[in-house]
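Action item from last week, closing it out:
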Amino acid sequence: MRIFLLLLLLVFSCKKNVQENKETNQEKPLMSIEKSHHSFEEVSPAFKNEIQEWTVLENVAIFLVRFNKASANQVLSNADELADLTSAIRTSVIPKILNTPSIKARIMILHNEALRLEDMNKIPAITAEEVHEQINKVIDAYSSLNSKVNTVFRKKRFEDAIDVDVSFIGLDTTKIDSVSKKTIDTILRNNSPKPVIFKNKNRKRQ
């Protein structure tokens, strides 16, 4: 009876090991298969000169290009360096015009997403799908940061161009591309009060 139980236990153990090895062999190819990831919005070329000294932002853009198409293993092998680059943005001297709570919040979100990706290296049971999902979150966070940078500089350029307080005339400066300076000038002229001319009724008789 004991021999039978031992044989049964041995058979069960072998089947379990075979199943585990099969699952591992199935997962390994998935970790090595390249997959396309999200694209990201870049800082507009028109504003590149404004942030030419803030090189850490552009460094991340250059680095993220390698994830356009990459396997989960490739993503994880670069996760540490990506986290370092986002940390460099967080500790850098932000240009004065961009040193705002909304920009800082986006920088922190970017860094936190990069740290989560880095931590996946420590999880033995991590799946390829989870890695691909997380790198997309990092890319989206970086895209959101660049989008806000572009919005700030568009607003500044718009205000400089029309030389008027846009909040006073009720314009949404995040949508300034659809509004021309000529149109605004026309509106301001039409709404400006016309000068009043008084006639002199007491003319001297000659």
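Closing note: The beta strands are 35-36, 69-70.
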